[in-house]
Amino acid sequence: MSLPRSLERLHRQLTDLWSDTSDRPCELTHSEYGYLRAIERLDGEQLARAAGEFVPEVVHAGKPGGNARGKLSIPKLGDPHISDPNSGDIGHHLQDLVALLKVRKASASVAIAKLEKRGLICRFACQYDARAQHIVLTDKGKESLRAEEVVYEAATARIENLLTPEELSALKSCLSKIDKAF
User: 3-class DSSP state for residue 78?
Assistant: First the structure.
């Protein structure tokens, strides 16, 4: 089977995992899961910076020094909008999600409004930019993410049972390399 056909089938199989509601709590759609996971990823990178850990420097597309691939700027301790990670003034602007997920701002805005209505995220005004809001996960959002991880845990278990340890190691290595390239 050709690589494009194999990728198409893999995509279909992973999509089908989200359609199978028998083994998951069905709290989130795949899209909602993606938005919440992106916020969580941004949180982790933000906390790493605040702790002084190395996080690769990337910038917004369309901003000075930006690039067309839609990279994002992770705030760091000392930036005007994240002066103290314990101050409560943390979170991410909508543009951070747009850049990470490579979606349109209007689509992200609608999705964030729905997530807020469901209590999965909250937004609050940015003290440095009256036009912007910070977006953070709520405890309910974090719990929903953890509950829906069963989708990928089930797929992982099936793959681990199918492949030899050597094949599994090669798969992990290849997926890591592909992830870095995209």
Answer: coil
In the CATH hierarchy, which top-level class contains the domain 25-148? mainly alpha
Give the global pTM: 0.70
Q: What is the residue extent of each domain of the chain? A: 25-148
> What are the pLDDT digits (tens) for 60-86?
333 333 333 333 333 343 343 333 334
Question: CA distances (Å), 32 to each of 27, 38, 72, 78, 165, in order?
Answer: 9, 10, 20, 31, 33
Provide the residue type at 141 as one letter.
G
Q: Which of 150, 174, 147 is nearest to 163 (CA)?
A: 174
d(CA 68, CA 61): 5
pLDDT value of position 124: 86
Here the tokens at position 56 are: 């690769």
